[in-house]
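Supplementary Text 2. Reproducibility record for the structural model of the 169-residue chain.

All settings were left at their defaults, and a single model was retained for analysis rather than an ensemble. We include the record here because the model underlies the residue-level annotations in Supplementary Table 4.
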Amino acid sequence: MFRKRRKSQSAPADTFAGLREQVFGAAAAGGAPAPTPEHPNVWGAVMDMTYPNGTASLVALSDGTTSLYTSTGGGVVGGGAHADVVSATQGFLSSVEQHLGLFSIEEGTPLPDVGSVRIHALTLSGRLAAEAAEDDLGHDRHELSPLFHAGHRVITALRLIEEAGRSPT
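Retained model, structure tokens:
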């Protein structure tokens, strides 16, 4: 189901942190989806973008599960029920797969500083991450720019469906 998330009774930041940890803990809990032939090593990716008023996290999984969480409350879940979102998600994951050499092993799940973007690659061999300034990524001044743009295609697909108010068929 695709819907805009409403604020929960717990603090928005707590809900946001809990949702991120569910994704990051999926492999350990045996709940990670399988990779696909198009991206055999990557079963998911999280793109965190931090702004002065909060953080947005795009979650994209190989089974098509796609969500956008915000630390200020709300977000979008259920995007995987829409073909356009699934297609953009698979493109994002394929881009992550193609650029795995740019990632380093990640121990925790830190958020980036304001003005930065951190991309977490969820792989069969563990979690990897890479970070860069959003301005450099957006203006194609960083080798991770293709991943950033692929992630934003997913966000655009989510936004277009939300704006259209369509429900999955």
